Amino acid sequence: MPDGGSLTLDQIAETKTPSFLDRREMGIVNIGGPGRIEAAGEGWDLAEGDVLYLGMGAGPVTFLGQGRFYLTSAPAHRALPHRLITVAEAKHVHMGAVETSNKRTIKQFIHPLVMESCQLVLGYTTLEDGSVWNTIPSHVHDRRMEAYLYHGMAPEARVLHLMGEPQETRHLFVANEQAVLSPSWSIHSGAGIGGYTFIWAMAGDNVDYTDMDFIQPEDLR
Predict the structure, then answer these.
(1) pTM to 2 decimals?
(2) Which CATH topology does 6-85 take?
(3) Would you kindly state where each structural domain of the chain is located, as residue ranges?
(4) Taking Cα atoms as reference points, which of 127, 136, 122 lies closest to residue 187?
(5) Which cofactor names does the annotation list (predicted)?
(6) Burial category of 162 from C-beta neighbours within 10 Å (exposed 0-12, middle 13-18, buried 19 and up)
(7) In this structure, are residues 142 and 187 in contact, taking their beta carbons and an 8 Å threshold?
């Protein structure tokens, strides 16, 4: 969060590379006000909800303005073009129904139907007014892990996030702008108090968003 100034991401000790993106790709979501990102001699202005993809070898990344940036990254095997994907350019998928309390819009940004990446897949889901459940029925995808960031929630609100093996589930109470890491063997579903959006990001053996093994509610324990 540059807060009107600038912040630069470059060398991170844990990657053991001269710069963080030397062997990685990155997806960045702006969840705040207008912001700007500069890398590889280019610059992009992001409105709230826009997503920037940076390919392997982008070098130092500088964040500016009033944006609040959520970063996801995964190892990459080749350099792909950097790209800004606006909310209007994302693929919008409408799912669920009022009757099942899960009417929602899925916005796909870093996704094979929108652009190419090495292994990162990213977008976010927003619940419609009066709906609380996301990702019903639950599913697992043994070939990819997934990370979630819940946001757009009132300070006192919580999402009950379900996770764990289908026959031995666990739960977390998640507050605004808290993240959950979901391993490939874990289900992921949730129900919230009031409206919310969750950013999902996946990495693994494939980039097939539809590669899911569904678990029906009656089979959960």
Answers:
(1) 0.94
(2) Jelly Rolls (2.60.120)
(3) 6-85, 91-219
(4) 136
(5) Zn(2+)
(6) buried
(7) no
